[in-house]
Each structure stands twice: as structure tokens, then as C-alpha cells.
Please model this.
Amino acid sequence: MSILIVDDSKAMRMIVRRALHQAGFHQDLKEAATGAEALEVVESGGIELVLCDWNMPGMNGLELLEKLKSLGRTVKLGFVTSECATDIQMLARQSGALFFITKPFTPDAFLSALEPIIGR
Amino acid sequence: MSVPFHAEKMGRLLSDLLGRPVSAKIGPVTSAASDLPIVASYAIDNGDLAAVCICDLEFALNGGAALCLIPACEAATNLKKKHLDPLLFENFKEILNICAQLFGGSNTQRVKLVSVHSKASEAPETTKKFMEQTRMRREAQISIAGYGEGRITVFC
Model:
């Protein structure tokens, strides 16, 4: 599965990448530092799953999700974010996010959130 | 606005984030605010400050290194030179960002990190005023396994 990690923090992209490695994903991992960059990567084709931060300068995670929907892109998207407020989580789900992982996350929690999506 | 601060909760949060044991223990206030360089301001949605954290260089370097598994000796070398390495500082800002959870929650106002300064003198006037006016001040000693220690002072 081709996965795109979107986060304006290089450190967090590295941590998410590490968590994916621990969950068994070693290939087809791409990164984007902004929502706009993520959009370009998705538009270039091949991405099946987006792991996205919520708060980012410029286009935030929710705006990215809405943009992908408006463009008719069927890529799956979930949030990996420091936001933990329940109203934010509800908004994310209502907008179509498949999961909402709160940082910091344990490897088990990360895998549990991804398993229904990746079918392992 | 007054928000609670629990050092043990910070220790657990940092342990989960850094993937290694971290302890945070409240101790007596031993440092003047001006001695600690890193100033982080947290606010609620309307912009009102909810908390200010001041951290020492040691915590910033050790935390910043631990987050990305940068060797502890890098942090130690920078500490010896009293130099805040830009990469370690960027990493530490992410730790500070996640620490916003300590000051809010699902049942209370949402609190987020709004600014970080590497020199106390550069902190906004609102931050300085908040620190002067806030009664609750807690100082905690942070210990990151495999890296070292540091201090954080919380005004909330």
C-alpha cells in the first residue's frame, strides 16, 4: 500500500514513518510538509492512504481532506495529530476521516487504528 | 484562566512520545524565570493565555534529541557549548506542542501552543505579564532515560 505522511514537523514525519516501519510498512512511503504539497503528491497518482496532521500552516489537514473530496479523489485519509478535543475528532469523522490517532501514540494503538484500513 | 498542571501526567505523556521512561517530579522552585531560556506560551481559542512554560537548555537539548533518536552525545556536546542546536530546538518545539494537552482536554477549553522563544527577553509582553500575575508556579525536574535531565517551570 502506498502511504503519504503529511506533517509540517520533520520530527513527526520521522516518528510516523518509524511507527509504520514497526507496523510492517517499509516501502512506498512518501512525505509532504504542507497540505499543498500533499495535494500535488496525491494528484501525481498512486497514493492509497494519507496520514495527515490536523494543524498545519496554509492548508490544514481538514482543508486538505475537503479539497481531496471536492476533486473526487478516493484516497483514504486519517489524522495523526496532537489535537485531542472530542469536537475536533467528531468533525474529522463527519468530514470523512477514517481514523483519528492522537499524539503521542503507542505502536499498538497506531497499528490498531490502521488495521481496519489496511486489512491486516 | 487557570488550568491544572500534573507533573506525573507530563511524565507519562513524554514517555509515550519519546518511547522511553521519562519522570517528571515537582520540586521546589529553584530558578529565576530569567535563567531559563525557552519560553512557550499556550492559549485558549480566544487568544487568552492559559499557561506559560519555561524550560532550561538541558531539557530542550535532551528532549529534542530523544524525540528523533539523535545520539545523547549530540545533546551533551551542545549543552557543554551552551548552544541550542536548531534541529534539536525544532524537535523540542514539537514536544512543547504536544504538551498543550496537559493544559486542556475534552471537557475543558482547548489549549494550544501559540509561541516559542529561545530567549526569555524575546517573549511577548503578554507572556511576561502572565508570568508576573499568575499565582500558580510549579517547577519540575524531568529525567529522560538514556539522555539526561532538565527543568521546566510552569505558570498556569
